Hints:
By secondary structure, the protein is mostly beta strands. The protein has one domain: PCu(A)C copper chaperone (Immunoglobulin-like, Sandwich), CATH 2.60.40.1890. The protein has no helices and twelve strands. The strands form three sheets. A five-stranded antiparallel β-sheet has the order 6-3-9-10-11, with no helix packed on it. The protein has a four-stranded antiparallel β-sheet with strand order 1-8-4-5, with no helix packed on it. About 25% of the residues are buried. Mean pLDDT is about 85; it is low at about 110-124.
Amino acid sequence: MPSSVPNTAAYFKVVNHGKAVKLVSVDTPVAKEAQLHTLLDDNGVIKMRQVKNFALGAHSTLTLKPSGDHIMILGLKKPLAVGSRVALTLNFSDGSSNTITLPVQKVSRTSEKQEHSDHSHHHH
């Protein structure tokens, strides 16, 4: 990844087998910070916005994807190599956390390398 691209995004699914909970933050050792983001339609213009949490209903699945809710990883400490793996710790409103590892993949629709996983990660 060129040094001019200090940010990337993470996409994955979180499956909640328990009571309703919120994903409130994400930590990763590969960047200065990770933020929860969504895309909004503002009079026909798609804009990215940071949000405070993502709600997971009881026994539901949260799908993070390029065209919707996702994790922005800001201030990468070094370039991410395609094929490497990145750890993310998901922090929930009930005080629990879950560390997952995602493969780094190149997303074909852009020239940026982004983390992406179609794997489900379970909470509770």
